[in-house]
Design goal:
The chain is of the alpha+beta class. It has a nine-stranded mixed beta sheet with strand order 2-3-12-9-14-7-6-4-5. Strands 1-11-10-13-8 form a five-stranded mixed beta sheet, with no helix packed on it. Strand 2, helix 1 and strand 3 form a beta-alpha-beta unit. Helix 3 runs antiparallel to helix 4 and helix 6 packs across helix 7. The longest helix is centred in the C-terminal third of the chain and has 24 residues. It is globular, with a radius of gyration of 19 Å. It starts with a strand and ends with a helix.
């Protein structure tokens, strides 16, 4: 039985999206949305090419993640290595797989002039509106299944290349075998193992392909698994949770949950990792029993 990704993401043209409509229909209701042609409303939509980034920042050293690295089931936000941007752009342009990807990189800090090419869209602007993060990857590069550690809403806009995104609601966290004290799942949505993870039989999700210029709104704690269909460049902006009290989760995550998990991983190693895996299995089994009894 294949993973049920039959749910449909609403799609709207950027020129038809108003601040009021976005807030009422999507932000307040925490519903995902694909926004066609969003980047085309800004200079970046046509201006930000591979050659453009070579010209303005090619000699810069940038931080990237390596999918070959294992992180012991912990939420990781620190990059694995540094690489010359020109070298990384060469990787992005090749028609072949790469394990390297740029993830939440502050290119605006290196090149402040880029901000005028693509600022946070008015309908999404807020306290975090000045914080834009860059993402880059080569063909077939994957971003493992997770939800964002800061618990904020995300607007991810594809500038260059195509990307497939799987989205799953937070209510399925236990059935996705979320590892305790992390925002990570061990499930590979491209090759789901139903024998090992039977809870997947009860999960429903969305799949959508972002084309160049498309923006996608991902509500708070939505699980997502991304695959670069070819070399790509994207930028994200964030917006605080619509419930201010829930925004406290961001503080707790960075100050309590993540540090605790890091300490326990360092102290107990494999024993702690096994505990988390067993706890995830137990929670999924309990949830399946409840669903079967309903």
């Amino acid at each position: 039985m294949p993973l049920d990704l039959s749910l449909q993401v609403d799609t709207i043209d950027a020129s038809d999206l108003t601040k009021e409509k976005f807030k009422k229909e999507y932000f307040n209701k925490q519903r995902p949305l694909l926004i066609k042609g969003l980047a085309k409303q800004f200079p970046a939509g046509d201006k930000w090419t591979i050659d453009f980034f070579r010209q303005i920042a090619g000699e810069q050293t940038v931080e990237v993640f390596d999918n070959r690295k294992k992180h012991d089931g912990t939420t990781y936000i620190k990059s694995d290595l540094e690489i010359n941007l020109n070298e990384f752009l060469d990787i992005i342009e090749k028609d072949e797989y790469s394990p390297l990807r740029m993830f939440v990189f502050d290119m605006f800090k290196r090149c402040p002039e880029l901000k005028k090419d693509f600022h946070c869209p008015d309908f999404f602007n807020g306290i975090l509106g000045n914080i834009g993060m860059f993402f880059m990857g080569g063909k077939n590069t994957e971003v493992p299944l997770h939800y964002d550690v800061d618990y904020n809403n995300v607007l991810l806009t594809q500038i260059y290349g195509n990307k497939r995104i799987y989205l799953i609601e937070p209510k399925y966290s236990h059935l996705l075998y979320q590892l305790p004290f992390t925002t990570m799942s061990p499930v590979d949505l491209d090759k789901p193992d139903y024998e090992k993870y039977p809870g997947l039989n009860y999960v429903k999700g969305y799949t959508v392909v972002q084309e160049p210029g498309d923006g996608i709104f991902m509500p708070t704690k939505y699980w997502h698994y991304n695959v670069y269909l070819n070399g790509g460049i994207a930028i994200s902006y964030r917006k605080l949770n619509k419930n201010p009290i829930k925004s406290l989760n961001t503080i707790l995550s960075f100050l309590v949950t993540l540090p605790f998990d890091k300490v326990m991983t360092k102290m107990m190693g494999e024993k702690w990792h096994n505990y988390k895996k067993n706890k995830a299995l137990s929670r999924a089994t309990s949830e399946m029993k409840d669903l079967q009894a309903a």
